[in-house]
Amino acid sequence: xxxxxxxxxxxxxxxxxxxxxxxxxxxxxxxxxxxxxxxxxxxxxxxxxxxxxxxxxxxxxxxxxxxxxxxxxxxxxxxxxxxxxxxxxxxxxxxxxxxxxxxxxxxxxxxxxxxxxxxxxxxxxxxxxxxxxxxxxxxxxxxxxxxxxxxxxxxxxxxxxxxxxxxxxxxxxxxxxxxxxxxxxxxxxxxxxxxxxxxxxxxxxxxxxxxxxxxxxxxxxxxxxxxxxxxxxxxxxxxxxxxxxxxxxxxxxxxxxxxxxxxxxxxxxxxxxxxxxxxxxxxxxxxxxxxxxxxxxxxxxxxxxxxxxxxxxxxxxxxxxxxxxxxxxxxxxxxxxxxxxxxxxxxxxxxxxxxxxxxxxxxxxxxxxxxxxxxxxxxxxxxxxxxxxxxxxxxxxxxxxxxxxxxxxxxxxxxxxxxxxxxxxxxxxxxxxxxxxxxxxxxxxxxxxxxxxxxxxxxxxxxxxxxxx
Length: 469
Hints:
This protein is α/β, with parallel strands linked by helices. The chain has 15 helices and 23 strands. Strands 17-18-16-15-21-22-23 form a seven-stranded mixed beta sheet, sandwiched between helices. Strands 1, 2, 3, 5, 13 and 14 form a six-stranded mixed beta sheet that branches. A two-stranded antiparallel sheet has the order 4-7.
């Protein structure tokens, strides 16, 4: 049996899976936590990898390994390959002002946003690496001057697995490069002019590998895959195909679609990422997802299981009661100062079941708005993969196909980023034009007649309350 390994170096933890290269069967796995915070010394990632690998039985018998990981983080290296400062993570917002300045640099307003979208498929926001580099140049000039190379978390960990052999061995893939703000998914090329505009000069950046191109070997002789960002790796782990949408319901909501065409959205709502197979992965994020269920359960004083039962006992549309769940502001649509809104409360709907139903429908309608946004690029929606902690809700699973209006697949809980990295490692090992077919037993198919009236009513209330939330 030939074994491959996949690593997920996420914000919270490092996960390692070891799988059979032919069948995808899980052989063993390990996990270790990462430190909290929005900036982290990358050495902590290497230490967590060592712990997770040891827990997973080591890599001595593994033929290939790939790393998936959190996107956008800025890892700066000096001429000797030493880390210059703790890595700024995707969720570090101190570069929000730098994002605005970069848009202004290309004309400001709609013209600036359009220029960035046409150049790299993205409009700068604080999460993207390009904005962090601008921040570093402005606020820590000594560290900026010391920086000789810039890479992303998965790039750096791949380099560490290779033995840190020099900057020529720094590699990345299309999926993660597309989230930097200085690489174009549409052209497949870096934009050194934008990198220099942000940073004042052009440090070394990783070479972008093809989807199944080896990125060297470990000291033990295992092939290294190119790896990818977390969303692209998860799509690969789920075997998502063009027209498939991955909806992840975690602390935030993420909606991404595998597409055969690049996307450039000048509004900045949709990020025009690439995927890990040679296609594209337009993506949106919502600020309100699983915590909408947490808040509603807390408000009603019930468990999540009870919340699901209540929601499913009420009629579709919750009798006209609509919950616009912008409890933390919202990013899609862009309403950062908004609050939640409850509309349609009557003597009839002043019942726990109606509120529970409205909360689940509101959560799903918000994600459906995101689905519309990624589908606006022209690729028809085929089906939705529903993953993340919120997908454990039986009400979410039951109501999703009717609200989203397409068939919904609910795969069993798993480490899909690490699984995608492992599948990529098997692909690098086998070669060929397509990744290996691995069985995904236990996936649940949910279908239902669409309920457009639910979304129409939600949209009516969403716009009615827009100027008051």
